[in-house]
Amino acid sequence: MSIIFSRQCEYAIQAVLYLALKPDKNMISIRELTKQLDIPYHFVAKILQDLTRKGLLVSHKGPAGGFGLGMKAKDITLLQIVEAIDGVSFMNNCVFGFPNCTDEDHCAVHDQWGKIRTKIHEMLANKNILEMAAETKKVQYHSGKQ
Predict the structure, then answer these.
(1) Distance (Å, rounded) from C-alpha 60 to C-alpha 20?
(2) Poorest-confidence range of 12-26, 44-58, 128-142?
(3) What angle (nearest 5°) sits at the alpha carbon of residue 128, between those of residues 38 and 18?
(4) Fewest CB within a 10 Å sphere: which of 16, 42, 77, 127?
């Protein structure tokens, strides 16, 4: 599990990345996706529905149905996926969980965490799925096999 994102968000990022590497207009079944990525079927089904409601994915029912990207991979940022699943409250919250951590009344790492938050936000907002798909080396994303 990552330090910042929930397990749901991790799976969402992995699923969208997998879909980005498939030919355009190719619908991928949840079964194929979960088998290739080795993630739980029922858990991912809800995540994919959430991403579909947010417009990041499209879904079609039936034998040739499944899920696909709802927009071009270059137009989907990591920030959009994180917002859709986890929200971005971690960008405003104190790293220690203090309810009122402000510039005037702050915790011991307030300034350092602020710089890290800014860098994280920049990375999430500036990194799109097309770039990530091109840069990933994970075998299951490229060969369809694990």
Answers:
(1) 17
(2) 128-142
(3) 20
(4) 42
